[in-house]
Every structure is written in C-alpha cells, then in structure tokens.
Amino acid sequence: MRAWQVVTPGPMGTGPLRAVELPLPEPGPGQVRLRVDACGVCRTDLHLAEGDLVPRRPHTVPGHEVVGRVDAIGPEVGAPGVRLGDRLGVAWLASTDGTCIYCARGAENLCPASTYTGWDVDGGYAEYVCVRADYAYRLPAGYSDAELAPLLCAGIVGYRALRRAKLPPGGRLGIYGFGASAHLAAQVAITQGARVHVLTRSARAQALALELGAASVNGAYDAPPEPLDAAVLFAPVGDLVPVALAALDRGGTLSVAGIHLSDIPPLVYADHLFQERDLRSTTANIRSDGVEFLAIAAEHRLAVTVSPYPLAAADRALADLAADRVTGAAVLLP
Ligand SMILES: [Zn+2]
Ligand SMILES: [Zn+2]
Q: How far apart are CA 153 and CA 92, in angstroms?
C-alpha cells in the first residue's frame, strides 16, 4: 500500500516525510483494518514532521483523523460486533492500559501508558490502517468522508476544551483563536444556547465566525462586549492567558485547548484569578467525549470547511498548513 512516513524530522522545506510502499498491515487481536477514505491533516502532524513532537518510534505513518471502512477483522474483536464495510473513525487516542488509577477513575486521557495514532502506532496517511476496534468511533450520517475527518481531532478535542470551560446554560463564551477546532466548538456552544464572542485578528476568521452565528467578533487582545462566564483559548499564545482571564466575570473559567502554548507572562492574582476565576488545561480526550460530540454532530448539522488534497500530496498539505495557506481543514483523500 501507499503511505507516508516521517523519516527525518525537520522543517517542511527539508522534506521530513517520504512516500513509501508498505506491505498491507494485518489486524492483530482486537483490531480491525480500515481502507482509508479520508484522513485529516492536524497541526500535531506538523509538529511531528518538524520534530517539535519527538517521534516515539522511527518511520511512523502520521494521521489521526481517519475515516475508513472495515475491510478485515482481527481475532478477539468483541461485541458489539463490527461488520465488514462499516464506516468507522479513528482519533488520536489509540489505546490505554485500562488498569491505572487514571483509567480507573474515568480519566483515560491521563493514562501514562496511553498510545496515540500516528505517533506510537501508524496512522492514516496511508491506504490502510489497523486500529483497536474498541477505540474506533461510529460516525454520524449526513456528512461526507472528508467532512467527518476533522471532527475526529479538531472536533472532539475542541469539544472537551469547551466542556472543561464549564459554560453555564445560555452563558457568555469567549473563543480566542478561530481555526479548525474553534469553529466546531463555537457551533456546538451556539446550538446549546450560548452567546459566543470570537476574539481573533484574522478578518477571514472573523467573517466565518459571524456567518456561523457568533454574537460579536473582535481582535484577540480586545475586550469582549460583555464579561464572560467561560472562555476557551485555542490560539497557542500564552500572552493571551492574562487577557482572557481579565475578560472573565466572577467565577468564570478559562480552558486552554492546545498541547502547545507559548510562555504565559506573569499573572496578577487580583486581576486574573481572584473572585474564583479558574485556569484549566485540556489533555487529549476520553472516548465518551468523542461519542458525545459525534452525537451532537448527528443531531445538528455542523458546518465543516475542508480543503481536499490527494494522498500523494500529503507533504504539500503540511507545507500549506505550516504557511497558513489552508482554508478550513486540510483532508487527504487516497
Ligand atoms: Zn491507564
Ligand atoms: Zn490532532
């Protein structure tokens, strides 16, 4: 099968990825093999290609927003039964031990033994991928394969970050940064009755936010038009942490969505945290976040903007992402 591997991590201009021909992978115990129909290109893939995310093993196939159809079923795939031809989604969390104290209390996203698709195990920049059936997701109808792909990381992790922001029903939400993840989380919040204020410098992103139903748009460092009950920081910019904390009303929560964040400048307790304002991070997701988010996507048709690329152009898709040339989410189509 055709696939891409991260061979020599480094800047995209140095060609860190290589197109290769690999043997068809065979599903092991508990696994199914998917014929890949679409794979989203996430910024984490770029971090892996460029070496910001240290490879866990050599020559990994990236890609953790995979939509495919089951074409082989390994031994010991338990109930509920997976059938040949089922359309399934694969996300970042590939497996956990299921036995540690974090897994036992329902925080499998914190499991120290967790593995990740396209980092510890081969991902979806390929024609086929083998995944654990119990970590794959059933997907909602009414979306194309390409539209479903970005829901699997941008969508699910954005949803968890939104949940971590503890937005009260009908509350006032600030969204800092407005990329693939933020534009999905904003739509979820709006369907749940929130008043959403988007804070981003990009005029194009501001226009999209208004189209999707945002109550206001402003620059990232501007004050929103009203105090916020909750905010989610999607931009990986630590300078915005005190800005967003200062925009919260008493008792408000700021949830940081990303894996990477530049340094946070010093906080002033009275201005940024007192009056029970909370600052929280988000780490990947648990499977129930994915199930909940995909159920919301089934009930409310979310608008998903995709830029399709052929699988053969995965390196170009990543270079375009690095240069901010992608509109919506880049998706590879084998
Ligand atoms: Zn665990
Ligand atoms: Zn991702």
A: 7
What SS3 class is residue 175? Answer: strand
One domain, residues 265 and 164: yes
Same domain flag for 114 and 190: no
**What ligand is nearest to the CA atom of residue 118?**
2
Alpha carbons 25 and 91: distance in angstroms, whole number: 18
pTM for the structure as a whole: 0.93
Q: Find the 320 Cα to ligand 1 centroid distance in Å.
A: 36
Contact by Cβ (8 Å): 247, 234 = no
Domain that holds residue 225: 157-282
d(CA 177, CA 150): 17
Asked if residue 112 belongs to a domain, the reply is: yes
251: CA distance to ligand 2 center in Å? 30
In a domain, 221, yes or no: yes
- Give the model confidence (pLDDT) of 140-168 as tens digits: 999 999 999 999 999 999 999 999 999 99
CA–centroid distance, 32 to ligand 2, in Å, is 21
